[in-house]
Structure formats: C-alpha cells, structure tokens
Amino acid sequence: MAIDITGRHIEIPSRDKDWVRERAARLERHIGKITEGRLILTGEKRRVTAEAMITARRRTWEAHAEGADLPGALAEVFDRLETQAKKERARQKDHKGKKSARTLAEGFAPAPHSDGAIPERRIVKTAPTRIKPMSAEEAALELDDSLREFIVFHDASSERVSVMYKRKDGHFGLIAPEW
Asked: 9, 15, 56, 124 - which has most CB atoms within 10 Å?
C-alpha cells in the first residue's frame, strides 16, 4: 500500500500521516489491496481541501472534501471513500449469482409436450389502434406518457407509416420503412 501524501501551502504533521495510513488500511477491508493512492491537501486562508484518489483491483475511487481544520477534512474524505467502496461492494454482491439474460431467454422457450413435440406458436391479436398523422417528436411525447411499448403513426414529414418503440436504455427507437 503506497499512498502519496502531498501538502500544498500546508505542513502535514506525522500523526496525521499515520492516521491516513491507518484509515487506508481499514479501507482495504472493503476494496481489497490498494495498488495506488494519492492524497492532496491544500491549505487556504481558513479552510483545508482534501482530494483523494485510490486505485484497487483496476477500479478507482475519488473523493473531495473541505473542512475548517486538517483532521476534519481528512475524516470527511475517507468517509466518502468508504461510502463509495461499500456501495460498490453491495452492488457486486447483489449481482452475484443472478442468471444471465441468455439463461433467462432459454426459460421462455416453448415446453415440449409429453410426446416430445414442440407446440405450435400462435398469434394473439390485440385491440385495434388508429394510426394518427404526427411528427416523430409528437410520437415520442405520446409514447412517453403512455404505458404502451410502441406506437404506430403516420409520419407527417415523410408521409409514411412509422413505428416508435421504447428501448431498454430509456431512449426511443424509430422504425421508418423505405419503399
């Protein structure tokens, strides 16, 4: 664990340097072995700014904090780093053991009958919808306000039937056929 402690316009007492090393060792419980660490302390008139950047397991955590005194700024910056590390660890534990999308998709395959034959797929008809003339922006607004996953509309600018759908990333997709 190599942590570079730099003081700009401020003298850092050895007890505070020891406290930083002790707190970094405590941080290693959450993030693993620290491969690189930098702590920059800047002293201005009546405040101390602490900036920390810690790298462990190809992941980097950064935190900034200000305080009226040096120990307060150091404690706050390490509290923020520890909070980030705990959130990351909880997120990793939450994802561990979940099935992949491919495994879930295989579960939706039609189940074979007892004689081994795969059942025929069927088309389920939904309620009819009116195709309204509107622009792509108006279609996006209407789709955003509704619970539907897609909307079929008559594009006013191109005079063609188009389809707008909600994507999994939160954006909208537009299918405009070319004839």
From this structure: 56
